[in-house]
Amino acid sequence: MSPLLSIRNLSIEASGTRHVDDLSLDVAARERVGLIGESGSGKSITGLAVAGLLPRGLRVQGSIRLASQEVVGTPERVIDGLRGRAVAIVFQEPLTALDPLMRVGRQVALPLARRARRDGVGLNGRALDGAVEDLFVEVALPEPRRIARSYPHELSGGQRQRVAIAMALACRPDLLIADEPTTALDVTTQGEVLALLKRLVAERGMALLFIGHDLAVVSQAVDRLVVLQRGIVAETGSTAEVLGAPRHPYTQSLVAAARRFDAALGWPA
């Protein structure tokens, strides 16, 4: 069976700087993969490339096949048909990802209605409002009716991130890309959002590409890790293998740093 996502020899360059260099990776249906590395390693730009959201002016070479459709060089109208159905993204900072001038219920209702049209089902009025509230319950938001009437600035960071997750799930994508979704949250809320993502991915049978720089955080959410250093794959393997016996010096430094941090906090190794 072909992988849900297949990246082959992907290179992304801008103004003479290569942000991603000959990257190849696969994500199978229902698989959870972590893409990890320091800032500027090419993680987030890879996620944007998968969804066909790269800004203009970048030179892209190689292949990205998503749900058997080539993404690189494909017209926007074709890629737009993949978004929501084949792939959706949860971004790092929901306060900027959400529209500040629109109630969050309306923002979630739009992709829900789009999915309904795609499936040939009518969904509007009270039925659409009910579907929004049901989705808010699924992502563990309290008082879903009140949340739906709120604007982003009226919610906490954790609540906004749950709204962003609800938006990403609205069209029932096959692949969920989580781009550092816990970075702007406190430690307790980070754990809650991680647990939520793991539960939703399992319950909905989605694949997950979890992008992050914090090895300890990413490793909690995925089965396999791909380590990027300056746009190049340094190491890949199961989460247990990479954490237990890292081979590349860069990965070794990431693991050592994570262990020092845990030790400083008094957490078990």
Describe this protein's structure.
- The chain is α/β, with parallel strands linked by helices and 269 residues long.
- The protein has a single domain (5-265), classed as P-loop containing nucleotide triphosphate hydrolases (Rossmann fold, 3-Layer(aba) Sandwich).
- The protein has helices at 43-50, 76-82, 94-97, 104-118, 125-138, 144-148, 157-169, 187-204, 215-219, 239-244, 249-265, and strands at 5-14, 17-27, 32-36, 59-66, 69-70, 87-90, 175-179, 207-212, 224-229, 232-238.
- Helix 8 links the parallel strand 7 (175-179) and strand 8.
- The chain is globular, with a radius of gyration of 19 Å.
- The model has no long low-confidence stretch (mean pLDDT 90).
In short:
This protein has helices at 43-50, 76-82, 94-97, 104-118, 125-138, 144-148, 157-169, 187-204, 215-219, 239-244, 249-265, and strands at 5-14, 17-27, 32-36, 59-66, 69-70, 87-90, 175-179, 207-212, 224-229, 232-238.
- What structural class is derived from the secondary structure elements? alpha/beta
Please provide the ordered H/E string of secondary-structure elements: EEEHEEHEHHHHHEHEHEEHH
Relative helix content: 40-55%
CATH class: Alpha Beta
Note the beta-strand portion.
Answer: 15-25%
Shape, principal axes of CA atoms:
globular
Largest sheet: 6 strands, mixed
Give the radius of gyration. 19 Å
Report the count of strand segments: 10
Would you identify the CATH architecture?
A: 3-Layer(aba) Sandwich
Domain count, please report it.
1
Terminal CA distance: 38 Å
Average pLDDT score: 90
Q: Which runs of at least 5 residues are low in confidence (pLDDT < 50)?
A: none
Query: What count of helical segments does DSSP give?
Result: 11
Strand order, biggest sheet? 6-7-8-3-9-10
Q: Determine the CATH topology.
A: Rossmann fold
CATH superfamily: P-loop containing nucleotide triphosphate hydrolases
